[in-house]
Design brief:
Blueprint: E1 8-10, H1 12-16, E2 20-22, H2 38-51, E3 53-58, E4 61-62, H3 71-85, E5 91-94, E6 97-99, H4 102-110, E7 120-124, H5 134-143, E8 147-151, H6 164-171, E9 175-179, H7 189-200, E10 206-208, H8 214-221, E11 224-226, H9 228-245
Parallel strand pairs: 2-3, 3-5, 4-6, 6-7, 7-8, 8-9, 9-10
Antiparallel strand pairs: 1-11
Helix pairs in contact: 2-8
Bound molecules: fe (ii) ion.
Length: about 250
């Protein structure tokens, strides 16, 4: 069968137009698997600027037993880093990327949550399986006044053959954030295929770089081959980031 959907070459830099708002990255040094030193942070921020990212909401992991961060640790680290990077970017602040587990539920009950902005909370799941009480967690979170933004839904392989789950998540009030690297085969062909399908079907709400290191940056700077419908959807998401998260 002939394929009439011709792919175009795009660069994120061209789509970001110099004032993109990134809502997912690991730039605070030494507290998760992202930047290790302030030099790493500086270099990542310089690269963000080259890409046209001018507003940064960085999101260190909070995963008990792995990256046992808390609001104080993140705020203190943000305080250390801010003076260094605020000279360059238009805005810089820290939130978190929360693993949805029982410790997270406790933080929600205590309202000890670092939001991306307003009531938006960046959450993730294990790549092995979703939490048993996933929909209870999402429900409790919203009852407490928060809006969940699920990071990289396309990376959860257990949903690839169960596509209805994405609609179920959206119906349960969960917004979806595409990792921009999933627009390539960086995380594998299955992730790429799922990401593009979700994108074409208009399932995503926001985008994020999820940048941890210079390798991620190198891939973010590469060209992406996308269909016109995918590019159009991507532009909408980039605009959403700006509308909802710009300071
Ligand atoms: Fe992340």
């Amino acid at each position: 069968m002939l394929n009439f959907t011709r792919k175009k070459t795009v660069y994120l830099k061209d789509l970001f137009e110099g004032d993109h708002v990134d809502i997912h990255s690991h730039l605070l040094p030494g507290i998760d698997d992202g930047a290790k030193t302030i030099e790493d942070t500086n270099s990542l921020v310089d690269n963000f600027l080259e890409l046209g990212i001018r507003h940064i909401i960085t999101s260190p992991h909070i995963i008990q037993g792995v990256w046992p961060n808390n609001s104080d640790i993140i705020r203190n680290k943000e305080g250390e880093v801010r003076p260094v990077v605020i000279e360059k970017v238009s805005s810089f602040r820290a939130a978190a990327e929360y693993l949805m587990d029982e410790s997270f539920r406790k933080l929600v009950r205590e309202k000890d949550i670092l939001c991306l902005k307003d009531h938006y909370v960046l959450v993730e799941m294990s790549y092995i399986n979703p939490p048993l009480s996933l929909f209870d967690i999402l429900f409790d979170l919203q009852v407490a006044g928060y809006t969940p933004v699920l990071a990289h839904p396309e990376r959860y392989l257990f949903y690839h053959d169960n596509f209805d789950m994405y609609a179920k998540l959206k119906k349960a009030g969960c917004l979806l954030q595409l990792n921009l690297l999933s627009l390539s085969t960086y995380y594998g062909k299955g992730v790429n295929k799922t990401a593009l399908r979700l994108l074409r079907e208009g399932m995503f709400d926001f985008v994020g770089t999820d940048a941890h290191n210079s390798r991620h940056i190198a891939y973010l700077k590469q060209k992406f081959k996308l269909e016109s419908t995918e590019i159009a959807q991507l532009k909408t998401l980039i605009k959403n980031n700006k509308t909802v998260f710009a300071p």
